[in-house]
Amino acid sequence: MRASHRDRRGPALAALCLALILICVPAAAEEAAIRVLPGGTAYEASVQVTGSEHAFWTPGLMGERIPLQVEDLKVLGPTGPVEYQETGGGGIAFPEGNYTITYRAPVRDNRLVVAFDTPYTVTVALPEGVDVRNPFIGMVSPGGAVSSGPNGTAEVTWDRIAVAEVRFYTPDREILLTTFGTIWLAIALVLILPLLISRKREGE
To answer: What is the SS3 assignment for 196?
Structure first.
């Protein structure tokens, strides 16, 4: 006995709803954990990768891809390190699968930029004595949320972003900024106050 059209519409409708749910719900982003080392001249990264290749790069002044020189590179699978091949332009290739890639890279002028080919959930951990929250000498790219960690550390997190950037500073630079700001404020008052006094006398 053949099923009626009414009976067949139920499973078809359920399949259609499931397909719409899968389309509307975005896939979870891979995660990247970045730790700036004490001294602020280098960072260590741990990046989740699904596939058979990965590229290390940083954006240039015009947005171009500049290959990133990394050290202590490891591709780690479920059973341990996996061999990889360099493909040029900062890229590596390995067997298809799920991996964690770890490496170390330099930080120049207290500016850290990490870039990926697809959106990632990125966390940057800053060591004790390093901060980004003063807008005059620090910077966090759009979407980053800053939180305080233990022992004077800080953490910046982005959700689903391809390029994340921070410019951090040390306490001595903040003290220097405060000192120069105070000096310039005092000079401005010395220059402006006589002018204000003379205008007040003219008004009388």
So the answer is: helix
Residue 188 has a pLDDT of 58
Cα separation, 79 vs 98, in Å, equals 11
Residue 23 confidence (pLDDT): 39
Output the DSSP codes for 119-168.
Answer: EEEEEEEEPTT-B---TTT-EE-TT-EEEE-GGG-EEEEEEEEEEEEEE-
Given a cut of 50, is residue 131 above it in pLDDT? Answer: yes
Chain-centroid distance, C-alpha 186? 38
Q: Is pLDDT at 123 greater than 90 in this prediction?
A: yes
Closest residue by Cα to residue 28 from 48, 1, 53, 5: 48
Arithmetic mean of pLDDT, 124-143:
93
Q: Which CATH architecture has domain 24-169?
A: Sandwich (2.60)
pLDDT at 149: 85
Give the closest residue to 156 by CA, choosing from 142, 137, 170.
Answer: 142
Region 148-152: what's the mean pLDDT? Answer: 86
Residue 15 parent element (H or E): helix 5-24
Domain ranges of the chain: 24-169, 170-204
Residues whose CB is less than 8 angstroms from the CB of residue 14 and which lie 6 or more positions away in sequence, other chains included: none
Question: How many whole angstroms separate alpha carbon 158 and alpha carbon 114?
Answer: 12
What is residue 31's three-state secondary structure? strand
